[in-house]
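PROTEIN DESIGN WORKSHEET
SECTION A - STRUCTURE
LENGTH: 116
TOKENS:
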């Protein structure tokens, strides 16, 4: 997986007309591109659309834990690794709206202002 991304990144750098030796100067861009690339891959593995309404707009799709894990998770990369390894039982894709409704209905945010 990491090697695949490095090849993707090398192609990206060459398309932008940058040299690999200036790699360190673009570490923030590298990190951002790596995150986006992994996120797309994970969303694809989990079905590529909202499990509730079928929305496919990547801008609003979120990776959701079916059973909340609280603060056990440190970074999104930990979830990405699990999903890529095939541990998908506790994950689903929800759009931002469906995710907010789920959290509201299950009272996952006790301090959140609630409607009716």
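SECTION B - SEQUENCE
RESIDUE ASSIGNMENT:
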């Amino acid at each position: 997986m990491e090697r695949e991304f490095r090849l993707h990144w090398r192609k990206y750098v060459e398309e932008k007309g940058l040299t690999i030796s200036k790699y360190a100067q673009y570490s923030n861009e590298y990190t951002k591109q790596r995150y986006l690339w992994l996120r797309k891959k994970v969303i694809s593995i989990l079905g590529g659309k909202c499990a509730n309404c079928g929305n496919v707009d990547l801008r609003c799709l979120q990776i959701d834990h079916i059973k909340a894990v609280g603060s056990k998770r440190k970074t999104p990369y930990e979830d990405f690794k699990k999903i890529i390894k095939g541990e998908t039982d506790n994950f689903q894709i929800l759009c931002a709206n469906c995710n907010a409704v789920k959290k509201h209905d299950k009272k996952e945010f006790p301090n959140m202002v609630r409607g009716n």
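SECTION C - NOTES
The longest strand covers residues 61-65.
The first helix runs from residue 2 to 15.
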